[in-house]
Specification:
The protein is mostly beta strands and about 500 residues long. The protein contains no helices and 35 strands. The strands form 13 sheets. The protein has a four-stranded antiparallel beta sheet with strand order 2-1-5-6, with no helix packed on it. Strands 7-8-13-12 form a four-stranded antiparallel beta sheet, with no helix packed on it. It has a four-stranded antiparallel beta sheet with strand order 11-10-14-16, with no helix packed on it. The radius of gyration is 48 Å and the shape is flat. This is SbsA Ig-like domain-containing protein. It comes from Alexandrium monilatum.
Length: about 500
């Protein structure tokens, strides 16, 4: 048989304790109860051990043995299975307190006490506390398994292995999953919740403006400047009581502060790997970037740190080189003049800016009788800005239907290319195309051709210099005979409204 744990009510849900959870050593029987089934959580239970669970050892022929265990009554060993801890610990307090606005008062040699909502410990996996600077100082990361971090109950003390930079603002974060409670629940994220600032080594205080004008040598328009050698220049200004403002004073303070190494990222060239924007997100490819020393340290100032972690100090020395993405530029202004002729207006082009150089366009809106050859298109000029491609044009519209049939027109003589079945939007007549007009006998055309102009056959009206008058279509008009017969007495027969002679 085997021992088992059962709730007081519902013996059918009893959980057996197998041999892997039990052991016998001499007269002691050990039963493991850890990790009981979640179904028993919070219920009163009892330990049940049947009579045939164990028996005593055989002591030889004369010593007896082999007697079976008498068993345990179900109510002798009662207990309650505790609920599993699933609540994550949280950060409840920080000393020194997190600053909503930098106060610049903390010492550079710092220890922080973190208080949590329950006892905590460092997780088995490696995790760090990070001090991330705001103004370009060196970042600091401290392992939670190092001697710089101590856990005592629900508190942890973090000490910095080196001084922080003076006058700096640090954001303190803890890696996700780096701190857990005793049940293995990881700490809630602390990102952005802790911010501290250190005191600067040099402070200025402002005095009232009237202080500069006291005494016979009062000064006005005072100013100060600091050079790259950490020297402070104070300009006293002209004498406040002198009409000419003579006697400008200049004072110099040698601070003796070390000048640390200065380096900056500069592109190795101005050209990206592509001339057009492609990809998702669109870009001009990549650009080689180098971090180069432009100022050497002196007077004990800190050196620069190269990518391999070694200090560097020589002017012009490259600390790091790599490729960075070239973002796709954009056109921030409207297309420049001269703009295409025959536009509706140009005011709408100033809307919807900027336009990306990754295929970004603005439409060309033409007036009636014209169509756009394409849109205004923004393309990359360089890695900094876009430019507009050569402007499109407003082109006179073609005719997408055949000329109309007018009264007394000879439909049998219509040119085949101008017939109704030959002209369509898919096969239009181009602007300026001419279709002959033939009339029935006795009638003559007012114009020998239908001319396609600006999408129609009557032009744009009186404003169109190529239109017939006010944009009238040609027509077949009745032919007229001359007032006198021709010489020689010949007869002229006019049909359709003329004379007979």
């Amino acid at each position: 048989g085997s021992a088992r744990v059962a709730p007081r009510e519902g013996a059918a849900r009893a959980i057996p304790i197998d041999r892997a959870r039990s052991s016998i050593e001499g007269h002691r029987l050990s039963l493991g109860l850890s990790g009981l089934h979640p179904a028993l959580t919070g219920e009163p239970c009892s330990l049940q051990a049947p009579a045939d669970l164990v028996q005593d050892l055989m002591r030889g022929a004369a010593g007896g043995g082999g007697n079976r265990f008498a068993g345990l009554a179900g109510s002798v060993y009662d207990f309650t299975v505790p609920a599993r801890d699933v609540d994550r610990p949280a950060l409840s307090a920080v000393q020194p307190q997190s600053e909503n606005y930098p106060q610049f008062m903390l010492p550079v040699s710092l220890a922080m006490k973190l208080t949590f909502t329950e006892p905590v410990q460092a997780a088995l996996t490696e995790g760090y506390v990070h001090f991330t600077p705001t103004f370009g100082s060196r970042a600091l990361s401290i392992s939670l398994h190092s001697s710089m971090v101590a856990f005592v109950g629900s508190e942890a003390v973090v000490s910095t292995p080196e001084d922080l930079m003076p006058g700096e603002v640090y954001t303190v974060t803890i890696d996700d999953g780096a701190i857990t409670d005793r049940s293995g629940n990881s700490l809630e994220s602390s990102a952005g919740r802790i911010r501290i600032s250190t005191a600067p080594r040099l402070r200025f205080s402002r005095i009232a403006a009237g202080e500069l004008l006291r005494g016979p040598e009062g000064r006005a328009l005072a100013g100060a400047a600091v050079d790259l050698g950490n020297r402070i220049f104070l300009l006293g200004g002209g004498r406040g009581r002198s009409a000419a403002g003579a006697g400008v004073g200049l004072w110099l303070l040698e601070t003796g502060r070390g000048v640390r190494c200065g380096a900056s990222n500069e592109p190795a060239g101005e050209t990206c790997s592509r001339s057009t924007c492609r990809g998702q997100p669109p870009s001009l490819g990549t650009l080689v970037l180098r971090r180069t020393i432009w100022r050497s340290p002196r007077d004990g100032g800190r050196p620069c740190i190269a990518a391999d972690g070694r200090p560097r100090s020589s002017l012009g020395e490259v600390l790091w080189e790599g490729r960075v993405d070239c973002p796709c530029p954009s056109c921030s202004a409207a297309p420049p003049p001269p703009l295409p002729a025959n536009m509706q207006n140009a005011s709408y082009l100033a809307e919807g800016l900027p336009v990306t150089a990754a295929g970004g366009t603005r439409p060309l809106l033409c007036r009636r009788g014209f169509y756009a050859s394409g849109p205004f298109m923004c393309i990359a000029a360089d890695r900094h800005a876009g430019r507009w491609a050569p402007n499109p044009a407003c082109i006179p519209s073609p005719c997408t239907s055949a000329p109309p049939v007018v009264a007394n027109q000879s439909v049998e003589r219509i040119d085949r290319r101008c017939a109704r079945e030959s002209v369509s939007p898919a096969s239009p007549l181009s602007h300026g195309s001419k279709c002959p007009l033939h009339c029935v006998p006795g009638y003559a055309p007012s114009s020998p051709h239908f001319t396609c102009r600006f999408g129609g056959y009557g032009g744009l009206g009186a404003g169109d210099p190529g239109a017939d008058g006010a944009g009238r279509l040609p027509s077949c008009e009745a032919a007229s005979c001359p007032d006198s017969p021709p010489e020689g007495g010949a007869f002229l027969n006019c049909t359709g409204g003329g004379r007979r002679g």
